[in-house]
Specification:
The complex is a heterodimer of chains A (188) and B (361). Chain A has 3 helices and 5 strands, in the order αβαββββα. By secondary structure, chain A is an alpha+beta fold. Chain A has a domain of 121 residues: Alpha-Beta Plaits (2-Layer Sandwich). In chain A, the strands form 2 sheets. Chain A has a 3-stranded antiparallel sheet with strand order 2-3-5. A two-stranded antiparallel ribbon of chain A has the order 1-4. Chain B contains 14 helices and no strands. Chain B is globular, with a radius of gyration of 21 Å. Chain B has one domain. The N and C termini of chain B lie far apart (46 Å). With 361 residues, chain B is an all-alpha fold. Classes of the chains: A alpha+beta (188), B mainly alpha (361).
Chain lengths: 188, 361
């Protein structure tokens, strides 16, 4: 008998305890983040989409070699003598035309290994993470700011220059001459 | 009034009777049950979300109030799937029957002193009897689905509703003993005046029996609230549609509009039982303190106020049902039966006898 009424008392009192707790939670601010309108604050060293500041790029190819999934492909064309490419923001002289700089974000694993070797700090992680695409080709980002005609022109210029040099060399082979100095852009 | 209008229009009393009857039958559906069900579903989602520190629907309309309208539009458009091995006839009748059962209960619910579908002398009895149809509909749905989980769910549901009908009836009977009437309108009229005239506080008058009745009335209220909760298959008594065990019980096989009918019936039932509790214990449509209409001398305001108080009380108990849903875990089948047969029914019996003795005073 005692147990019977004890059960009733326990049942009712615990129900009221539970109801009190759930009622309190009605007024606790929701933890939900209304995503597209409100975005969660990202951690300071969050790794997301890469960005290449092509004006600072010297085409050294170190990021491409550091990439574990080979998603960066760089093609450079030597500048012919007389062309001035300007300097990077930290004072390095540019000697190569970067005629192709693409990053395939479908492959990128966001490891940030490409960021550290860059001598001019022109490749870095941004806080952009919303860049989904319907087609995989659209994830192939081209960072070069030359038009395709301009790139071709740079390649043609170099080919022409090399051909002229080759012809000169052939001419020089017939009569002995001092060695031709090699282009060494990295030393500067 | 409407009948006379149609008699004038068609010159045939049979046709007028059919048309006015149809309109009167559909009016509460589209003016109250459907909007209420939509609102209740929205409320349920919001209440559950906020109790779990979430936000719930937020996109469609202000705080997602249009979400349930969008949902019902989707349900109407959906394909109506009838599986090959279903019992076609029973499968199609079941949702209609379930809905009709809960919908018919609204006929006798006193929304205000001036608007009652039909003023039955046996209102309480009628409501209890007609909601019995819901059981038949649920069993039919489970059986005709030809699905073991549906059948299990509907059998559990029937066992549950049949057991919990008894304490409900016993408590209603004790109320009938005090008031001497089964008419919900008369019951509500008896509780007029102020809050201390409500049956939860012993009913009208200031005699010794009123004060003796108060604890018994609270017991009766708890019993009827628990048992009606079980009758409408709400948590913690939701074993007939236990999602984690039985997919969703008897309406697993239903889709589209037929599912919507079960859904609507469930929410209509929630309000119906809350309305009965409010009508017999909490003064029905009576205001807890006088009417504003009497104060400013505007007679027409009183029915509006009464409607407001009735829906407010009903909605409050619907809210408590939701509140309990997010507080208590589901009962096991044996616990469910224990609650009914070992606790609610004996206590309701003792309550009935004590109330009978007190009313003899």
């Amino acid at each position: 008998m005692r147990e019977y009424f004890g059960n009733i008392f326990t049942a009712l009192s615990t129900i009221f305890v539970g109801m009190k707790i759930t009622f309190k939670h009605m007024f606790v601010p929701a933890v939900t983040i209304q995503y597209p309108e409100v975005k969660p604050e990202l951690p300071e060293r969050e790794r997301n989409r890469l960005y290449v500041n092509i004006d600072d790029c010297i085409g050294c190819d170190q990021c491409s070699r550091a990439c574990p999934v080979s998603c960066i492909s760089i093609e450079t064309t030597k500048a012919i003598p007389g062309e001035d490419l300007g300097k990077t923001s930290n004072g390095k002289k540019k000697a190569l035309w970067v005629t192709n700089f693409t990053i395939d974000f479908a492959k990128c694993c966001y490891c940030q290994l490409c960021v550290f070797p860059c001598p001019t700090e022109c490749i870095y992680m941004t806080d952009v993470y919303e860049f989904a695409e319907y087609k995989r080709e659209n994830l192939l980002y081209d960072f070069v700011n030359l038009t395709h005609d301009e790139r071709q022109q740079k390649r043609d210029n170099l080919a022409k220059f090399n051909a002229e040099k080759e012809a000169e060399k052939l001419k020089a082979a017939s009569e002995p001459k001092p060695e031709i100095k090699k282009d060494q852009p990295e030393e500067k | 009034m409407m009948y006379d209008f149609f008699v004038d229009l068609f010159g045939s009393s049979t046709l007028a009777g059919i048309i006015s009857g149809l309109i009167q039958a559909f009016l509460p559906l589209f003016t109250f049950i459907l909007p209420f069900a939509l609102f209740a579903v929205w409320l349920e989602r919001k209440v559950s979300a906020h109790m779990q520190d979430r936000l719930g629907p937020m996109r469609v309309g202000w705080h997602g109030w249009k979400q349930t309208i969008a949902d019902i539009l989707k349900l109407i458009q959906k394909e109506d799937i009838v599986a090959k091995d279903n019992d076609k006839l029973l499968f199609n009748i079941a949702p209609v029957l379930t809905f009709a059962g809960s919908y018919a209960a609204f006929a006798a619910i006193p929304f205000s002193g001036y608007f009652i579908g039909t003023e039955l002398d046996l209102g309480v009895f009628y409501i209890v009897a007609v909601t019995g149809l819901v059981v038949a509909g649920i069993l039919m749905a489970g059986w005709a689905s030809n699905n073991k989980y549906s059948l299990l769910g509907s059998m559990r549901s029937v066992a549950q509703i049949v057991s919990y009908e008894i304490p409900t009836m016993l408590v209603l009977l004790s109320l009938v003993m005090i008031s001497g009437t089964m008419s919900l309108h008369t019951l509500s009229e008896m509780q007029t005046g102020y809050i201390w005239n409500w049956f939860i506080l012993g009913g009208p008058g200031f005699t010794l029996s009123k004060f003796l009745l108060i604890p018994l009335m609270f017991t009766g209220f708890l019993i009827i609230y628990i048992s009606t909760l079980a009758e409408v298959n709400r948590t913690p008594f939701d074993i007939p549609e236990a999602e984690s065990e039985l997919v969703s019980g008897y309406h697993t096989e239903y889709s589209g509009m037929k599912f919507a009918m079960f859904f609507l019936a469930e929410y209509a039932n929630m309000f119906a039982v809350s309305a009965i509790v409010a009508a017999v214990f909490f003064g029905g449509y009576q205001s807890p303190f006088g009417y504003l209409g009497n104060l400013v001398g505007a007679e027409w305001l009183i029915p509006v106020e009464q409607f407001f108080w009735f829906t407010a009380k009903g909605l409050f108990f619907v809210f408590v049902q939701m509140w309990l849903r997010w507080t208590l875990p589901r009962l096991r089948v044996d616990q469910l039966m224990t609650t009914s047969w070992k606790y609610l029914i004996p206590i309701a019996f003792v309550n009935l006898i004590l109330i009978g003795l007190i009313t003899l005073l």
